[in-house]
From TrEMBL:
Lineage top rank: taxon: Bacteria
Family: Belongs to the ABC transporter superfamily.
High-level lineage: Bacteria, Pseudomonadati, Pseudomonadota, Alphaproteobacteria, Hyphomicrobiales
NCBIfam families the record matches: PQQ_ABC_ATP
Keyword annotations: ATP-binding, Nodulation, Nucleotide-binding, Transport
InterPro entries: AAA+_ATPase, ABC_transporter-like_ATP-bd, ABC_transporter-like_CS, ABC_transporter_ATP-binding, ABC_transprt_ATP-bd_su_PQQ, P-loop_NTPase
Name of protein: ABC-2 type transport system ATP-binding protein
Task performed by this protein: Involved in beta-(1-->2)glucan export. Transmembrane domains (TMD) form a pore in the inner membrane and the ATP-binding domain (NBD) is responsible for energy generation.
Species name: Bradyrhizobium lablabi
Domain ABC transporter: 25-258
PROSITE patterns found in the cross-reference section: ABC_TRANSPORTER_1 (PS00211), ABC_TRANSPORTER_2 (PS50893)
MF term (GO), any: ATP binding
Length: 273
């Protein structure tokens, strides 16, 4: 399916169309997805959606199945059961259209430490077939969006852990995706770096209209206005606006709701609203 939406603020005519404008289309839709590693069932009948211009937290302990889900959405793994759509494009049937609208930050870092910030971005842009001049202007643009413009010429090796993560987010934005997936993007970072990253990512939602799926195991990364999906041992235990998930669990914060739903002890991170 294609759309011919006019470019919105911050977009150029050659950018991917902004299907967010198309009523009812989800940035990401997961329907009936299951996945097994041999006899081990990692995901069991997963169903949820991420709306355009929304922040959805995918909350789960280690081993819940978050990375497996990301591997399916990005087509690292083939889909065994179910369907995944990105702005209405089925990733099995129209992978090119779907992946063009998707940006991803995986858990392991994949930057070239010996290149500069800009060189890393230019290299990645070339892989996406973005011309040199366009790549330079886009690099400046994404570095500004993510608060790294002053480090454009620095060697990546000289950046802090939080700055490296922000560079990875900038890199994921180079081809101007409309949906961004981040897998435990703040792991190993201090409180300030985590807050910086979250604040930049939330700005992408409110200012650029990007739909975000944020996988985490930390309650304090979730705010009252987010959508929440609670994933536990491969199953979704609850989903919806944070306030509704908390209320339906008969709890008064995300931490307590998670413990009630899963019967587990507290996770790292401080209580969310
Ligand atoms: N390659 C694999 N082979 C066999 N089992 C796997 C493989 N990868 C993941 N699993 C299992 O699938 C389940 C889900 O793992 P997954 O990595 O998706 O969870 P996660 O929520 O991302 O956790 P983490 O943050 O620790 O990666 C776990 O039980 C895990 O042991």
């Amino acid at each position: 399916m294609t759309t011919s939406a006019a470019p919105t603020a911050g977009q150029n005519a050659q950018d991917p169309p902004a299907p967010a404008c198309t009523a009812g289309i989800r940035a990401l839709s997961i329907s009936g997805v299951s996945h097994s590693y041999g006899p081990r069932r990692a995901l069991i009948d997963i169903n949820f959606a991420v709306a355009p211009a929304s922040f959805t937290a995918l909350l789960g302990l280690n081993g819940a199945g978050k990375s497996t889900l990301f591997a399916l959405v990005t087509r690292l793994f083939g889909i065994q059961a179910g369907h995944i759509g990105i702005f209405g494009h089925d990733i099995g049937l129209a992978p090119g259209e779907a992946l063009r609208l998707l940006g991803v930050v995986f858990q392991p870092r994949t930057l070239d430490l010996d290149l500069s910030v800009t060189q890393n971005l230019l290299y990645h842009a070339a892989l996406h077939g973005i011309g040199r001049r366009d790549a330079r202007s886009r690099s400046g643009e994404v570095l500004t969006q993510i608060g790294l413009a002053d480090r454009a010429g620095s060697k990546v090796r000289d950046l802090s852990g939080g700055q490296m993560r922000r560079l990875e987010i900038a890199r994921a934005l180079l081809h101007r995706p409309r949906l961004l997936l981040l897998d435990e993007a703040t792991v190993g970072l201090d409180v300030k770096a985590r807050a910086d990253i979250l604040s930049h990512v939330r700005q992408l939602v409110t200012e650029q209209g990007i739909g975000v799926l944020w996988a985490t195991h930390l309650f304090d990364e979730i705010t009252a206005s987010d959508d929440l999906v609670v994933l536990h041992q491969g199953r979704i235990l609850a989903q919806g606006p944070v306030a509704r998930v908390i209320a339906e669990a008969g709890a008064d914060n995300v931490n307590a709701a998670f413990m009630r739903l899963t019967g587990t002890a507290a996770l790292a991170g401080s209580p969310a609203p």
